[in-house]
Amino acid sequence: MFQVIFIIAPIFIAIIFILVIAQLISPKFRGKMMSRQVKATKYMIDGSKEDIQRISTDMAYATKEGIETTTRAIKKGFSEDKSIYCKYCGSKIDEDSKFCKICGKEQ
Ligand SMILES: [Zn+2]
What we know:
Bound molecules: zinc ion
Helix content: over 70%
Strand content: 5-15%
Number of helices: 2
Strand order of the largest sheet: 1-2
Distance between the termini: 93 Å
Shape: rod-shaped
């Protein structure tokens, strides 16, 4: 088992070494490798485009919800409470309501 690793590892290192040297020496080879990398990156982006779109859409929605909740809370905080209490049953009712919505008596 270990013998296999001892054989494969140096070969692997040698291949990487040769590739690095070749890239350093030959600009043409370097260009080829670069374009291959660019292609691979492009392929990766194309493949995950839908995921990225979905994630960013989800994030946008989450942010929107958060902002809406915050805005609602701020609005609620700033707007004065336009409620009064029913003279008869003590329920909270709107200031301009003529009748109590709980007991129905005229205010
Ligand atoms: Zn009432």
